């Protein structure tokens, strides 16, 4: 289930980052926050496969060079990478905080 969700999320990221039309943000540099959140989510849900997912923050920004209406930005790439790194750390921590706990439903709800 987790891998299926991650696969669908990667497809969503591909769509969002490689779509020619980009909505403008009412906040100055608001797109950096969007990049940070998008890739923090990717890192959180895919922290176990971080080594396989690590190229995505770079690759998706680089591919925007070939999409009409999109531009390459080192600042966006930085936001992607920072978000991904924070997400991986948060996912690793979250998973580790639940290690050793048993989940049982003895006695019903």
TrEMBL record:
Keywords: Membrane, Transmembrane, Transmembrane helix. The keyword Transmembrane helix applies. Residues 30-90 form the VanZ-like domain. The chain crosses the membrane at residues 48-67, 74-93. Pfam families: VanZ. InterPro entries: VanZ-like. PANTHER family: DOMAIN PROTEIN, PUTATIVE (AFU_ORTHOLOGUE AFUA_3G10980)-RELATED. This is VanZ family protein. It comes from Thermococcus indicus.
